[in-house]
């Protein structure tokens, strides 16, 4: 079989001569358009998968309307640690009117809201038991006075009787002594018998001893009488004191104003019965005012006498100082009294309320974040920080310190100049990124 080369001329089966007019065979290309497209698409797919796996932001996102958010700027400034509390104007001194004795009200002379002077009668009470006790005490004192007078009279009579008895005894003794002296001489001269001598001797000795006994008896009786008098005098003095006390008690049935001032309240009416010690009203001393302030128990460990504050009244600031702390906590709050440093404002009235800025510490430089509704959701542990492009806000952990009504003190996580969403996070869920 004959093999022909591409360059040799031959005659085709159709009878044509192909020589130099026959087309040349071209080599097949590798980088075809289809292949380039496939490679480019695969490369883009691999790049997209690598980006999604290694570089893409996988954080959860939420689209929000920026105009409904409050965005605040973190700044460096002076942190003034204070709380705002409400104070109520009260008189510097308030005198409580408590019933010294009980009874029912027979007369009410002055109503609450009127000025009174010291000693003015406000009420009159009636108490029959007190009157009966007073009469019994007076009767006992009168009886003791009579007993004392009788005892003293008896002592004087006993002294007179003693003088009379001693006078008679002395007379009898003198007679007996004279008879005994005569018989002694006669007996020595053996003129009279022994019986006569001994008779006068015994009579003289008997009368002498009787006088001594009478003196001792009267001495005992006098000492006893003096002791009785002393006891009666002591008892009478105590009884008279009781009488005076009962008299003063009866005088207390007329309730009088202990000081001058405003009778701000009188909580009784005619015919009502009041008990001993019951509060029936109060008198306000209008020579000065103080502020009674209610404070949350959260601050009880930081409140002490001498702590200062300020109050604005009629466009002026007035300094105050804590002078008394009431330790009792009711409904999560306790009370303190604050006194004005340089006198109370003019035209201030009892019962008015006003906000007071109570200072808890000295001002200091700090990074400040405005207070907002975010705290209720985060507890101050994280916030949404707006990015530099202003198109999104990302969650970031922070640490907050002290707080006042205007700012939080930022300890970690934020720098001055950064913008933070400070409105409520209630509708944001657990999303880590907010897109505007």
UniProtKB/TrEMBL annotation:
Could you name the Gene Ontology cellular component terms for this entry?
cell envelope; membrane
Region called Disordered, residue ranges: 1-20
Q: Which Pfam families match?
A: RND-MFP_C (PF25967)
Q: What is its main location?
A: other
Q: Which SUPFAM superfamilies match?
A: HlyD-like secretion proteins
Q: What keyword terms does UniProt attach to this protein? A: Coiled coil, Membrane, Transmembrane, Transmembrane helix
Q: Where is the composition biased (Low complexity)?
A: 7-20
The record places domain Multidrug resistance protein MdtA-like C-terminal permuted SH3 at: 366-424
The record's subcellular locations are:
Cell envelope
List membrane-spanning regions. Answer: 36-55
Which Gene Ontology molecular function entries are recorded, alphabetically?
Answer: transmembrane transporter activity
Known InterPro entries for this protein?
MdtA-like_C, RND_pump_MFP, UPF0194_transport
What family classification does the UniProt entry report for this protein? Belongs to the membrane fusion protein (MFP) (TC 8.A.1) family.
NCBIfam families in UniProt: RND_mfp (TIGR01730)
Q: What is this protein called?
A: HlyD family secretion protein
Species whose genome carries this gene: Dyadobacter psychrophilus
